[in-house]
Structure formats: structure tokens, C-alpha cells
TrEMBL record, chains A, B:
Residues 17-71 form the HTH lacI-type domain. This is LacI family transcriptional regulator. PANTHER family: HTH-TYPE TRANSCRIPTIONAL REGULATOR GALS (PTHR30146:SF109), LACI-RELATED TRANSCRIPTIONAL REPRESSOR (PTHR30146). It comes from the Bacteria. InterPro entries: HTH_LacI, LacI/GalR-like_sensor, Lambda_DNA-bd_dom_sf, Peripla_BP_I. One of its GO terms (molecular function) is transcription cis-regulatory region binding. Keywords: DNA-binding, Transcription, Transcription regulation. The keyword NADP does not apply. The keyword Metal-binding does not apply.
Length: 344, 344
């Protein structure tokens, strides 16, 4: 997937005084200023006082997380192990985690498994060895491998997007069935019966939930005209585009499409570009520019998902010993035009 | 920025045998199977042989990086410190780094500074303490703070997107001036003179490069009709949308827009939605669905950027001691319609 970039994103706050300014005002080197403010040895008492006075004058504050990290004795790090760096879903989740952790003086460190269950386990162990305070995991596959980990050293685990299997742990999941049911009902209410379902790997728990929810909506309406248009195990943008092209050649063609994640929606949009009588389309997952394109989606909040996971982790770090909790992130259909087209 | 998600992204390869299957075939617990394959103590010789035989039969291979990580003595980790997790540019760069590192048995670990120079320095130190083999940094601001780091313990640094300042280090940068010059020339060649420039914070090096390149193109053509339409320090999607709306109310309005990063392009697209006589538009940075929307962009390859940075880091890890190298990632104008509209 090609990815956008925004340059000039990472900047320091211009109003925040820097260590360089403190050092200059105190007439010492940066290294000395840093040592003095971090209470490190080998700084003369008078020098230390001068540096602290300069810092006070400028309103310079040592960053709390920075100081914690520098102490090193108790780690301020929380680990996130997830599947795929190039997937913006994970970065949105991670940014939610990060923001929440920062409020508690904790810093997120992430590593990706590239969909490899064995590597996932090794990364979990590597993080545990490096003294993280908690571990958040988007499991990549065979969760049972976790049982082979030599004890978690009392470090709490939180699972994201997929339920823990064979492990008592906190989890944050999306209301996959509810969201897909709502999408199905939305298309039915606009008069569609021949609704194509384009889904990712059916053995993934979130995908199974979405399939189930969609079928529930069809069954409740007594509609089985969607069945010839079911396509599962479509795993990337390119195959989604091909699959939708193939569906459009059927006789009769489907009058509506439901794509069960953002990549599949992207593929569908490519297939439908310039189509004279495009079928209705609803995609699971909101995405950048869906408003500009006018794509109706089943939206949820991945940032909130990360925030909830961080909250659960922090509660455990703070000593909470109660039973494992599962938080469900709600979904909603956001109508933007493509899902409201009538059958051709 | 709202972020798309693709569920079912992270899956293990169905054809790849799992440790669970090895343990089942050998008739031992997962923990024992793991210990045997990792040559850990406390496994009876006969048991170890049975596990290895089962692994051979199933074609089970311990992941190389997983094994390295587990050994722990020499770390297989490489650190990336960058600005903002929610920015897909960073995840694309990181995925390029990750893929290249994997080929050398190295694992990427990332942390984000949230645009805080002091935190950036602490994270660099925290990674050094945790024995990373190399450090890749997208500097967030006042680079001089680096000089206060207590020696880099021989760990090589590679800078991404922004040149190192006050430090001899390898770097991977984008051809910002060249790309922006090409965008300016493209709009000029389609007859535009009143070209609005919507730019991010002018003090960021990549933004300065883009401003310079655009001005070079205008100067070379003897055109100064763009000057009333210069807008800098536009730092988010919302302000970009407002800025473009304001530009369109000018008399006369600009006939073309050049937005200097993806977020600003998103804002412009929102402002232009449904506009009866939209000006031409070129955005710096390619983005998902630009092909569907028909947006002309100055494209470059953030994944290649990450790959080059990882290559430079690996060369240093392997003992290369030559002078610091800077790799420039090229850009190209990708015409998709919006940049080829004639002046109204």
C-alpha cells in the first residue's frame, strides 16, 4: 500500500526552552548542564546551582518521561507487539496507546511481527527481558505459543483486536458483528438484495465476526440472494480490485458491495472508478479522504481502542488484580453517498 | 487524522508448521518443545532428540531473528526514534527499514518523540542502554542536544528526512527542492501564473527545501504573480482547508495550488470538494487513493527511504568505517488530472 507522508510533522515546541539555552545562560557545556539537571555525579556544587538557576529563569523543565527513562532502574517503557508497520490501523491504535501512556509518565516502544507467530513470541520475550512494565499485543496467529513463554515476570498483558486464546488477559475488541450487521441492514433498507460480500481471510476472528453479523442481517430479512456473491479470503488491495471486477461481470451483477476492511474497500474503489452504473458500496473501517470520495463506511475509533488498552495496562501496572476485562469499541454507519445508491 | 484499518492483516502463514504441532507430534509440552529447540538446559537428551525429529518431520524452522533475540547476549535490535506515530509517512519508512533489516537478521524497535526534543534525547539514550546495534533518527528539532549524549558507545546513527546538524552521520533525505521545482514547472507549463503555495512550518528543513525549489521554478520563468498567494506555517489538515477556502475568496483567485505535504493536500481536497471551478492542484507526497481521486502529486518512495537507511546502518554494523554518506531519494511528478487543469 502506498503511504502518504506529511513532512514537517515532528517539531519541537518553539516556546519550550531547550537544554542548549540553559547551558548557554549558565556558561557551561551541554554535557555539564545535562548532568547537573539529572543529578549525575562529577558536577561541582556551584556549577550545579548555576545550571539549576538558569533552568528556573528560563522555565526549563526536564521532561518527566525523559527523566524516568534516564534513571533506568525502573523502566518507564511499555511494549506493543503488532503485525504490520505499513498498516495505518496499527499506527492509529499505537498513537492512542502512546497518548494515554504519556499521561502516566510511560513511553511506548513498538515492534512488529510481520505476521510471524514465532517472531511474535521472541519479541514478547525480548521486551520482557528489557524490563517493560506492560505488554500490549495484537496476536498474529497461533496464540497458544504464548503458553511456552517462561513466565511473564508479573508483567501484565493486554490483547488488541483479537481475543486472547488460552490466556486470562484484558482485551480491547471492535464490535465486528454489530458493525457488519448494521452495514447489511443499511443496504437492505435501500432496497438491495443481490449484495456481494468481499471479505478477508475467514479464519481471522475479526473477519469471522463481520461475516457472522452480515449473515445475521440477511437471515433476519429472509434474503438469500447474496449467496452467489460471497467472496472470502481476499487478502490484499490488488486481489480485491480483481474480485470486484469479476463480480461486476456476473449476470445478473450484484447491486451492492460490502467490503470487510479498508484495504478491500480501496480495491473496490479502484475497480469501480469510472464505472457507468456503480453498485452501492459500504466499507468496514473509516479511512482518510472517505469524506472527499463520498464512501459510506462502518466507522470505529482505533485511537480510542489504543487508549482503552493503555488504560487497562496502566490499571494493572498500578496494582489492580481483578478479573480480566474485555472492552468493546462501538461502530457506526457513516453515510456519505456510496451506500445510499438505489439498486440499478 | 482519521486512519484506515485493515483487519485480518496480521496472520501466520498457514503452510508454516507451528511449535504447537511440533510439541504434539513429539508428545511433549509446548514449554519443553521450545526449550529443546532453543538448546536450553533441563531437557533430557532423548526428549530433545524426539522434539528435533518432530521438527524435522514437519519442516519446522526456528526463526533466525527469534533465535538471535532469545540468545540476548548480542542484541539483534535496531532502534528507530521518530516524531509521530499517527503519520503514515513514518510507518511507510519504518516498514522499509524493517524489511531490509530482516534480511540481515535484525529486528526494528521504534519509539516516538511526539515532537519533543528532550524526550528524543532520552529515548536515544534508553535505546543505547538497551543495547541496540544501530539507531535511526528522524530528528524532531534542536539537533544540538545530541552532543550532550554521553558517547554513543560505538553505535552507528543514521538520520532520516532531516540532515544531521553538528554530527557526522549517514543520512537519507528526499530531493525536496527538485520535486518542488518540478511541481512549479508543471503548473507553469499548463499556463498557470497565479499559483498559490500552501506550506507547512517554514523553519523545517524539508519545507524550506520545497519552498526554495518552487521559488527557483518561478524565478526561472520570470513569474512573480504567485507572491500574493504564499501561505506558510500551515501545520494541519484543518488549517489547510481554511487557508485554501480563504485563497479562493481572493480577487482574482489563484488558478492553481501547490501544497507541500500530504496533510495540506488533504485539507485542500476538502476545501475544493464540490467547487464549480476548482483550481489546478499538485501535492507533495503521494497518498492512498490519489489515483481514485485523480490528484497529481510529487511522489517519492518512503519505503525505499527506510530501506536505504537500514542499508547504511547495516554497513556500519558490519564494520564499515568510511566517511558519512548522504543518500537522496528522487521524486517524480505523477500526473492524474488535478495538476493538468488549465487556468479558468
Amino acid at each position: 500500500m502506498s503511504a502518504p507522508r506529511a513532512a514537517g510533522e515532528a517539531v519541537d515546541n518553539p516556546r519550550r526552552p531547550t537544554l542548549t539555552q540553559v547551558a548557554e545562560l549558565a556558561g557551561v557545556s551541554l554535557k555539564t548542564a545535562s548532568r547537573a539537571l539529572n543529578d549525575e555525579p562529577n558536577v561541582a556544587e556551584a556549577t550545579g546551582a548555576r545550571v539549576r538557576q538558569a533552568a528556573d529563569l528560563l522555565g526549563y523543565r526536564l521532561n518527566g518521561i525523559a527523566r524516568e527513562l534516564r534513571r533506568g532502574a525502573t523502566s518507564a517503557l511499555v511494549g506493543l507487539v503488532s503485525g504490520d508497520l505499513a498498516n495505518p490501523f496499527y499506527s492509529a491504535v499505537a498513537s492512542g496507546i502512546e497518548r494515554e501512556l504519556r499521561q502516566h509518565g510511560l513511553q511506548l516502544v513498538t515492534a512488529n511481527t510481520d505476521e510471524d507467530a514465532e517472531l511474535e513470541r521472541a519479541l514478547v520475550e525480548a521486551f520482557l527481558e528489557r524490563r517493560v512494565r506492560a505488554l500490549l499485543v495484537v496476536p498474529s496467529g497461533d496464540r497458544h505459543e504464548y503458553l511456552a513463554i517462561e513466565g511473564n515476570r508479573g508483567v501484565p498483558f493486554v490483547f488488541l483486536d483479537r481475543p486472547p486464546d488460552g490466556l486470562e488477559a484484558d482485551a480491547v475488541l471492535i464490535d465486528n458483528a454489530g458493525g457488519a450487521r448494521a452495514a447489511g441492514e443499511h443496504l437492505l433498507s435501500h432496497g438491495h438484495r443481490r449484495i456481494a460480500l468481499v471479505a478477508d481471510l475467514a479464519r481471522m476472528a475479526p473477519q469471522r465476526g463481520r461475516l457472522d453479523g452480515f449473515v445475521q442481517a440477511m437471515d433476519a430479512a429472509g434474503n438469500d440472494q447474496w449467496r452467489p456473491y460471497l467472496r472470502t479470503d481476499v487478502h490484499d488491495v490488488h486481489r480485491a480490485e480483481e474480485t470486484v471486477r469479476e463480480l461486476l461481470t456476473r449476470d445478473p451483477p450484484p447491486t451492492a458491495l460490502f467490503t470487510t476492511n479498508n484495504r478491500l474497500t480501496t480495491g473496490a474503489l479502484r475497480a469501480l472508478r469510472g464505472h457507468p452504473a456503480a453498485p452501492a458500496l459500504i466499507g468496514f473501517d473509516d479511512f482518510d479522504l472517505a469524506d472527499v470520495i463520498g464512501t459510506t463506511v462502518v466507522a470505529h475509533d482505533p485511537v480510542a481502542m489504543g487508549r482503552e488498552a493503555a488504560r487497562l495496562a496502566h490499571r494493572r501496572i498500578s496494582g489492580f488484580g481483578g478479573p480480566a476485562q474485555t472492552v468493546i469499541i462501538p461502530t457506526e454507519v457513516v453515510a456519505r453517498g456510496s451506500g445510499e445508491r438505489a439498486p440499478a
